[in-house]
Every structure is written in structure tokens, then in C-alpha cells.
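Operator note (shift B, R.M.): manual run for PCDGH protein requested after the automated queue skipped it. Running by hand, logging everything below so the morning shift can see what happened. Input copied straight from the record, untouched. If output looks odd, do not overwrite the archive copy; leave it for review.
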Amino acid sequence: RQRRGPGCGRALLGAVLLCLWWRAAAERVRYAIAEELGRGSLVGPLARDLGLSADELPARKLRLSEEKQYFTVNEENGNLYVNERLDREEMCGESASCSVSFEALVHNPLNIFHVEVSVEDVNDNAPAFRKAVLELDIGELIPPGTRFPLETARDADVGRNSLLTYQLTSNPSFSLALKESPDGSKHPELVLETALDREKQRSFELVLTAVDGGDPARSGTVQVRVNVTDANDNPPVFSKGVYEARVAENLPAGSLVLRVRATDADAGSNGRVFYSFGNVPDDVPSLFAVDSESGEVRTVGPLDFEEKNKYVFGLEARDGGGLVSHCKVQIDITDENDNAPEITILSLSSPVPEDAPVGTVVALLNVNDPDSGENGQVSCELSGEAPLSIVASSGGSYKVVTASALDREQASELRVTVVARDGGRPALWSSTELVLEVSDVNDNAPVFEEAAYSAYVWENNAAGALVVRVQARDADAGANGRVSYWLAGGSAGAAGAAALVSVEARSGALYAQRSFDYEQCREFAVAVRAQDGGAPARSSTATVRVFVLDRNDNAPRVLWPAAGAGAAAPGAASAPAPFEVVPRSAEAGYLVAKVVAVDADAGRNAWLSYELVQASEPALFGVGLHSGEVRTARAVSERDAAKQRVVAVVKDHGQPALSATATLHVVLAESLQEALPELSERAAGGEAAAAELQFYLVLALALLSALFLLSVALAVLARLRRA
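Run finished. Output pasted below as returned.
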């Protein structure tokens, strides 16, 4: 390859400035650039063509997904630039068209665009001959006008840049003629203008120049040495000008592709034909071999349809006298289904919030099968139970989207397999697994284990005692599932409930705020609210009904006879003791009085029983076990004392039992007038006792006053002494 001159550089610069862009369809952008552009050359304003403004670029994160980074995108302005030198001949060979396709990805929202950059040929390759010197033997008997095919030059460019014309240095004995093939290519032929005389001149030195059709044109030369020989006047002749064959890729080495045949009318060594390659591309000898004697073309290397699907090269037949003829061989490679689809994960959005709407894109895939036709037609499906579906996009891209609502509480992880299958027979397939985490949103309120709780607490409990523990569960995770407990009111209102019980925010334990009294409050209800830590928070409420259980903490209280009778406070006058008058004529069973008592407790703790514990005449009186009625046990006799004292005890049935006593004074007399003397003696005895008690109280008060004055005097003396 020759060095390019300044004119070529200017042509390349002009090609950069004339770079074209257009949209071929929705989500596809096409550009056209010239090959051999330097690194950093502008391809086109990709962001603007995708409809992205400069302000959106940082958030949309525009990037490319091509495997080999021929191009790069500027993150600041969104322009597409050349990342490395592009050699069209190296990338696409002899193909008439050459392009590079890749995907452009943008985020927020996630989308994919297909970009195709067409690489246009520039005339950067000069024609080249396979040999530096062409040896041509021409018999001296060859008549003028005979044509001798010459080796054609090869130009790696395509299109107009590869169309070659030939020129020959001026010589009176020879001229140049061009033979046009059906495909438009021209083959040089050396035309003998005058008869040769070996005795006068044994050889001729000519220069053949090949010029391509580029602007500016490039050229290559080869030296043509004509040796004048004795008569070998018939060149080999091929049976066909073009030999064609169609073979499948992956053909084993040594397989026969085709056979060429050329005949020579001469005899002896001049009629013996040998076959060889002409000026062929470098890859042809590594894939094919020609038998020099039989003309069989066989494979020597692996054929790959995906690399190249057609080979066109020339063969030459040379006889023993040095005459040469040429033919063209065209081998078409047919595709075999030897490539499984390739799955590339372009983007994966994980975790996915569980409230994501149906149709949310969670992954972008690209599936490519290098095969052609049905062998390269790919279908994709999802295997698994996840609520996802796959949707085909353009250019072999697929979107994995949500097919239904997600629920993290049922499935916190989505695991699905993408299966890509081509249309070959038998079909080839490949798969890849997608794993998506589902993130939690606060869509579940706490749920109590019971809608209503019942708690039983003994009265006289200690403040702070555990009453009951409530439990609520939240199916969400993290802060959304962290439950706190609060009092939300109750039968006594929120303030009243707070005065009775408190709830621990984390554990849900209810504690008594004070000691309960069954006689004042037998039951109450509070509402407990469970609230999670989400935003906004969700809550639910449960009712806790607390029942206070009775303890035997109240002794029976005697209503009659009055408990204070006969037992006044010190210093006060004794109240007259109640008395009952029983006639001496009373018979057994006579009702003397009835002891009346009550108990504030409930149940067995309030069941009362009566028992006579003391009496002046124990055999004279009896008391009913349950009624409390005091009756005479026998008839009253004259021997019984006029004054009788009866003490009865009242007991409840608690554990332990509590009791109270009732004292009843009975006077045995036929009438009230007869009983008055007995009553006056009792009053006088009471007044003497009261006077004696008053004397002792006055004495104690005087002693206390004297001690106080003595202490004050000692304190004053001690202070004066220190001063």
C-alpha cells in the first residue's frame, strides 16, 4: 500500500465535514462517514438526533453498547466521535457495503436506540501485482495480432476506486488491449504487432501500469519481460471463462470443491498444462488449494459463512512452453446452523419496587445469531413462574417487562430464565438467568394476632405489674415492618386509659399504672394502636378488656349494733351502749336482736357467717349461722343475772377469712322502768373511768411542755457559749 499524499488528506477532511445522518425508522439513527478518519473525528450529534437536550444528558446517562468500541460518545455534548481508525477493507473486505451497527442506551426512563454508521470507501489502496516481474515466452513463429493475457492487478478498494485501466510503455513490437469481463472488470492482453525474430532480439523489457478510477487516481506497475522462444504457438484454453461452485460451510479439509480444465493444442511439453493461482487475495491460499496437474480445487482450511460468504479468485493454466491463460473461479458458501443465539444483557434494573406499574421495563437484552436466513431468525421466551414477559424490540433487542402486579410479601426475588431459539433444523438455543430483587413498599398495615384481648388482674396489684402482652405483625420489611404500640383510648377515654395502664412501644406489653381496687372498678377497656414505621405510616387497633379480680381485702362491717357504741375515743364521753330488754318470762327461741353486717367484697369473700364467741351465760343465748339473729337458747330463769353481755363474731369465706365482732348488752327485766337502775349504774361507772383518763392526759401534756422549754434553754446557752 502506498503512502497517501496531501490531496488524499484533504479528501478525507472533506468527507468528515460532509458526514450524513438520518433516521431510517423509529428508534434507528444512521450516519455515513469516510474510512480512515482519525481518532476524535466527529460522526454526528447523536444526543440531538435522539431528541435529548444538553440539560437531560447527565440524568439520561447516554452510552454505547458495541462490543468493539469503534466509536465513543461525549458525555457533555452527546456527540458521536471516532474512537479508533476505521479501515474499510479490513472491516468488510470486498463487500459492496460496509456498516457498523450498535445500540445507544439511555436511562430514566430506560430505552434503546439502534445506530448504524456506514463506512464509505476512499481511494487509499493502490493497484498491486502479485509478481514483481511477469515472464512471458513468445515463439518467434507467432503471427502479428496474437494476444497474450497478462496478470491482472488487484485493488483492495471497492466501487469506482477498484475499477482498473492499464497502460503499456511504448514499443513498436507490442501494444496493449483490454478485454472486458461480464462483471465489468478489464483484463490486459499483450498484442504482438510485428513478427519476432529471435536472432535479432531475444527479449523485450516492458512496463505495465495499472491505474484505478479514484480521484486522485492511484497506480501500480509491473515489469513485463518477453522472451522470444521457438515455436509454441498455442496457449492453454479453459473450457469455461468462469467456474462456479456452491459449498456448505464447515466442509472438512481436503473436500473437493470443483475441477477446472484447460487444453493446449501443442504437442509434447508445449501441450502439457499446469494449474496455479493467479493474483488472489491473501486469504484464498489459506482456504483453498489447486492441484497443479488435475486442476482440482480442494479445501485446506475451515470455511465460515459468517466471516465471508463468497470467494472470487483467478486461476491460470501454463503450458510447457510458457503460454498462460486465465479463468475466474467463484465459490459461494452456504450457511449451516452452527451458531447458537448469543444473549447479551444490556441493562438490568434491580431492585424493582413492588408497586411498579404493569409494563415497567426491568431489563434490556440483545439477542444475536450470526447465521443467516431461518438459521439466524431468533425467538425469545421466558421460563419461570415470575410475573414477567418479554417483548421484542427492533434490531434483535428485547425488553423484559412486568406482566402483573408485584408483591414482595409473596416473592421477594424474581428468578426467570431467558431462552433464545433460532429457526434452524435442528434448532440451536441458549439461555441466561435473570435475578431481580423486589424492594418493599409500605402496603401492609400491622395485624393483631387477636382482634380483642381479655386480661385478668388481681386487685391490690403492684404499680408497674404486667397486665397482658399484645402482638401485631406487619408483612412488610425494614422500617415498613417495624411495629410500635400506642394507647388510642378506651372506655374511660384516652386520658383515663393512660391513668390506668401504659404500653411499651416496642414489645406491646401493657403495665398497670396503679393498684386496682375491685370495689371501685371491676373492669375497663383500652384501645391499643399498632403503627408501622413506613411513610405514610399504616396502623390498626385492637381492644384490650381488663377484668379486675376480687381479693378478700375487706373485713365484714357491723351495721347493728353500731361498731362505735361502748368504745368512744380517748378523752371523749362514752356513747351509751345499745341494750336490749328481754322479759324474764321469755321462752327458748325468743328473738333478742339481729346482728346486721355487710362485706364490700364479692363472691365467697362476701359470704358471711355468725358465731357466738362470748356471753355472760353461754347457754342462755344462741346466734343464727347465716341470719345473725340472737335468740334465747332456753327459758330465762330467776337465777340469771339482770345484766348480760353477748359478743358475736362475723366471718367472711375468703382465704384467709376476715372477721368483725359485735357486742350486745341485754337487760333481763319485765319492763323498761325495772331496767333503768341497771342502766344508771353503768353510766356512773363510765363517767369515773373518763375522769381518770382525762387526768393522765393533762399530766402527759405538762411533762412534754417542760421538756420542750428545757431543750430551748440548753440550745440558747450553747450558742452564747460559742459566741
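Quick read of the result: The domain at 342-439 is CATH 2.60.40.60 (Immunoglobulin-like). The two ends are 127 Å apart (CA to CA).
Leaving this for review. - R.M.
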